Amino acid sequence: MASSRIPLTPLNAADHPDREIYVGWDRGMQTYYAQVFDGEDANGNEVLLVDRGNSIGDLTYPGGVIDAVRDYAEIPADLATRLADDRAADTSTFAQLRTEAGHVARQALQGDPTAIDAILGTSAPSVDDVDLILGPHTVHRDGTDTAGADNATAPLGDDEDFGGDDGLHSGLGY
Fold first, then answer.
1. Helix (H) or strand (E) holding 21
2. Under 8 Å CB-to-CB from 116, ≥6 apart: which residues?
3. For the chain, is the Cβ count within 10 Å smaller at the N or the C terminus?
């Protein structure tokens, strides 16, 4: 789920026919957000009474969102649970994805193409598929790649080239 957007019913809706209230979880910003719009001003610009959750990690618990809109909206009894569920459904943070990508890359470099298959849910590429892209080659456990018609051996990468010594970036080109 990229983000959630839960519309709320305004308090005294008859007195505020143009009022719109939204709360939710913003995956990209890793924050809850709350917005209360109250129609347009004389110049046609939206009137924004509440606008919270605009920076990374700004609101990290549902109560902060509920407090931000309490004076403007009817608060459903299950709102905190719905917000928490939206956040829990969003489990793929950048750090988690990067860790998983490094794990899959290490396994692939060690000759386990099924590591990629498990993540992508596809069949692992065949040697012929890889040869079409890289040319005929063999990746050895010692980190060398035998490539080309003359089978010259070249190292996949040196940790010093990538500014690290943990081997995570070795041979991955970044």
1. strand 19-26
2. 104, 108, 124, 125
3. C
